[in-house]
TrEMBL record:
Coiled coil ranges: none
Family: Belongs to the CPA3 antiporters (TC 2.A.63) subunit E family.
Organism of this sequence: Gemella morbillorum
Membrane topology qualifier: Multi-pass membrane protein
Name of the protein in its database record: Na+/H+ antiporter subunit E
UniProt keyword annotations, A-Z: Antiport, Cell membrane, Membrane, Transmembrane, Transmembrane helix, Transport
Amino acid sequence: MALQFLINILVGVIWMFFSANYNSEYFAVGFFWGMVLLFIFRNTFAKNFLGKQLYYVYLYKWLKLIVMFLIELLKADINVLKMMLKKDLDVNPVIFEYPLTVKKNWQITLLANMITLTPGTLTVNVGHDNKQLFIHCLDTNDIEGEIEGIKNSFEKAILEVDLDG
């Protein structure tokens, strides 16, 4: 992945030198053409040499995960704020077991932290065999809906980010 980025920078620098204009605009054009070259040669000999996935696709998936988390964070903030501003505090707190699809320790840690950082939910514990999380939810009547929501948002995005899988 780092090699792809270095090749892309090298193409940008070479483009600058061949253009005889040493400014950022010409470097950006060369950098763009480097991205195009990496895209063109991704399925040829370069697959074993440069890796399975293009680095800018990988960066895009991380950016997508971060933006998705920020949107979920904002939605949860609004829901908790609505609960706080109600005259009567009518909540249904529950702790439930969440079966994990992610397997690697960094994925489990990231998922647990994303759940904990989202207001209204808290990761209480990780199962001893790393196959489930125990999650406290401040207010829910639909545990299956909560599980599906986490699977279709956080866990799905984390699985997309993984280079191996």
